Amino acid sequence: MRSQFVLNSKKIINMKKLTLISIALFFVGFIFAQEEGGGSTLQQPTRPVEFPWQQMDVDTFSVPVSPVFIRQSDVFYYHTVWRIIDLREKRNHPYYFPTTRRGTWRSLAQTIFDAIDFNHPENLNSLPVYSDEFCELKLTPEEKRNILSNPKTRDIIDPETGQKINTEDYLEEFQPYEILSYRIKEIWFFDKQRSVLEVRILTITPVVEYERPSAAPDPNATPSADEEENYVEVPKAQRSAGVIKWDDLRPYLVKQEMFNVKNNAARLSYDDAITWKRQFASFVFQEQNTYSDRMIQDYIKNPRDQRIESDIIIDKIRSFEHELWEF
Hints:
Low-confidence stretches: 35-44, 218-222
Structural class: alpha+beta
Mean pLDDT: 82
Number of strands: 8
Strand content: 15-25%
């Protein structure tokens, strides 16, 4: 009897184990079926397929590194200069390309346009833009749209006769690839507390180059059957896209990864490249002077001599630091 009781108990225990295993397998199969079925829904992955490994989100970059606090009493020398960053130079190509959004890659201009967000005037967190270099006159959403658009005129055609009946004015928004240069205002100063010569960017101004609305006819041209031959080739016009505080732009730049020409696996943000590493080619076109807004081209006409004058201005600032430590 005792052996029969033990045998029955073992059978009951085995049945319970089999039941528990069956239930566990059922739930596991149900979960995997849900996951497999979820892949067949209309939801698409938000992360573009670029790498075989798990990629960190671009917004996982840390917040902008705060610069060292400077007391006014510790600054006994400073000099303000204005630079031009020409994106046509090879060293500045990482800031111009890609011309259109590709996966997680965006150009510097596209990052600024997305931060301004002039298509949504109700967005109170959009990047503010100013009309003056001291950032005192803030542009309204409508003014931002106007400054980033090109006024044009188009014909109104009668759908029945196909003839022109009128014209209308409209605004064509500039595209990020039309920004071919940036003007930055920076200040060089010597901090006697830390005994260092330091430079900090104050503002940045994107410059748009676009086709003029119309070309002027050449009065010296002979009449031709082809009307386009009678027009003079007009150079592209330039327009400032507004002045932006650098400190306001940095939170957007630190979240955008840029292409690292030396090592693509080394993550680098636009804020790191411009603010701290200063990985760009530029030249000075103006320095603070008695005449307030006089630029180098106002008193030097030769482009080659203008570049030489730009180097002289920077050497003058660096020589000041060098002479402090000369015994």
